[in-house]
Request: fold
Amino acid sequence: MSWWIIPVKLETIEAQFRADRRLAFQVLTAFGSKNQQAGPSRVLHEADDGRRLVEFTSETGRPGKTAVTHEWVAVDEPGEIRFSGVKGPLQHLEDRFTLEDDNGCTQFRYESSIGVRGWWFGWLIARFYAKAIVERMMRTHVPEMKEAIENRASRSSLFPQTGCAEQPDQIAAGALATNSA
Reply:
């Protein structure tokens, strides 16, 4: 029983990128590239089914502290990117980026669930400690991704930036309903 994991859903984050979703998809899946803006990563393995095992290094928000994870990444171009944790500080990590076309712009949605081994004790750690850390990291990371994608779009001749109706991003804490298990 002590090994059971009870997943905890994280806050959903939505943002609008002033960029074609095909370009946003390319930037978000440029793992290990020199021009990558979303944080250090490197591809460890490419599976026959198209998935990639990627190592990510992320700032935790605490000075000098980083988290290193190994995650299987599956893509459904250009609309969805799924991440499934294999190795890292959390025993359960399932992330999903959804990219929808909105008149030449991209509606981005981040959904995630995390978990820590230990049945109800692990759930308490995930719910009241790890959840806050991961949500804070993503509230910082999504605006960084948005800036990188929009900067790239401003220089693109293949996917030129078009005007779109600005919608407020829902990145701040409490902007959307928090789903918790």
Remarks:
- Residues 13 and 110 are 5 Å apart (CA to CA).
- The radius of gyration is 17 Å.
- The helical segments are 21-28, 119-154.
